[in-house]
Each structure stands twice: as C-alpha cells, then as structure tokens.
From TrEMBL:
Keywords: Membrane, Transmembrane, Transmembrane helix. This is Complex I assembly factor TIMMDC1, mitochondrial. GO terms for cellular component: membrane; mitochondrion. It comes from Sapayoa aenigma. Chaperone protein involved in the assembly of the mitochondrial NADH:ubiquinone oxidoreductase complex (complex I). Participates in constructing the membrane arm of complex I.
Length: 227
C-alpha cells in the first residue's frame, strides 16, 4: 500500500487561492510563471517610458531656459557654454524623469497585479477585471484628494482599464489563447506527464518487488524439502 501512494504528483491547483499562490512559486527549472515575468517586464518598461516622458521635455525646457538666462554670462568658450546648458538640462531630465518614472511604474504595477490577480483567482479573463483594476488603482492614487478625488480616480481608472483590457484581450485572441487557457493547458499537460512517469516507476517497483519475493521463496522451499 505504501508504494502506491508514495511520490504521487500533486494535481493542478483547484481553488483561486492556490492559483494565486502559484504565481510566486518557481517550477522545476527555477522559472516563475509567465504572468509574473510579464509583470516584472511591464514594470521595467513603464519606468523607462515614464522617465523619457517626463525627462525629455524637462531637458529641452531647462536647456532653453538656461540659454535665455545666460546671455549676459561669460564663458571660457563655446564648448563651455554648451556643456553648461547640457548640464542644466541633464539635472532636469533626472529630476523630472524620476518623478514621472516611479509614478508610472507604480500605477502600471498595481494595475497589472490587480488585473492578473483577479484573472487568476476567477480563472478567466474579462474586461471587468481590467475595469476593476483600473478603478482600484485610480482610487488609490487620488484618495489623498478627498472624496471628490477618490470618485474621480475611480472613474478615470475604470475608463482607462476598459480599453486597456480590451486591447490586451484582442492581442491574446490573435495568439489563439489567453494566459489562463495557456496556463491551464500547461498545468494539465505537466500533470499528465508526471502522472505517467509516476505510474511507470510504480509498475517497475512492483515488478522488482515480485522478483524479490520469488527469489526469497526459492531458498525457503528448498529448506522445507530438506527438513
């Protein structure tokens, strides 16, 4: 009885909580699920886009303002003046780029975490998941402005989440299957493969056990005949 249950592979997660926990668990190859990897990738991309969005206009504006203010200043040469203008623009690029970068990264990360969490927990991808994620994220970012800001954040987030979710679902439709469908298929195939391997090892173990029993019974029968 013990060998029949020892080492049996665990079935795929059945509840929403089990599926959520699986998002932060590595597989046998020490890889995170695709949803989690995409979450990290989107956070990094959002940070870069936010930095460029806030930093580049600030760089141009600061450089232009420095040139306008420095008409009466004396520089050693033209190169010194150009470098000073670039340094002024670079300071603004770093300052305002960082401000936009962390905000866009935080908004994108929270939005994706909530939408992915809802999709994984419910085991289906719908526009309502993205609308709820947008409303939650918008409310979180505007709640410091009071009830009016909270309501505005919810409306803005929901309005943002619906087209964003529709676009992502359309892209998944072009791929032929959603993340949930792909993940469920991979879970099922992995479980079936592990189960087949386990059954194969179990049958080999039973055959070896029978051979060992037959080997032990032979000497016993010979001693019984001698007696």
């Amino acid at each position: 009885g013990a060998p029949s249950s020892f080492g049996r592979p665990a079935p795929p997660p059945q509840t929403g909580w089990e599926r959520l926990c699986e998002l932060w668990q590595r597989d046998e190859l020490q890889r995170y699920p695709e949803e989690t990897v995409n979450l990290f990738k989107s956070a990094f991309t959002a940070g870069v886009v936010g930095w460029l969005y806030g930093g580049l206009p600030a760089f141009v504006s600061a450089r232009k303002a420095f040139i306008e203010r420095s008409h009466g200043e004396l520089f050693q040469n033209r190169a010194d003046a150009v470098q000073s203008a670039h340094r002024a623009g670079l300071r603004s690029f770093i300052r305002y780029g960082w401000r936009w970068s962390w905000r866009v990264t935080a908004f994108t990360t929270i939005f994706n975490m909530v939408s992915i969490g809802l999709s994984v927990y419910r085991d289906k991808t719908t526009v309502s998941n993205f609308a709820a994620a947008g409303a939650f994220t918008g409310a979180l970012f505007r709640m410091h402005l009071g009830l009016q800001g909270l309501a505005g954040g919810i409306v803005f987030g929901a309005v943002f989440g619906i087209p964003a979710g529709g676009l992502l679902m359309a892209l998944h439709g072009l791929a032929g299957e959603t993340f949930q469908e792909k993940r469920n298929r991979e879970r099922r195939e992995l479980y079936e493969r592990k189960l087949a391997e386990w059954q194969s090892r179990l049958s080999v173990t039973e055959v070896l056990g029978q051979k060992e029993d037959n080997t032990q019974e032979g000497p016993k029968m010979e001693r019984a005949r001698e007696l």
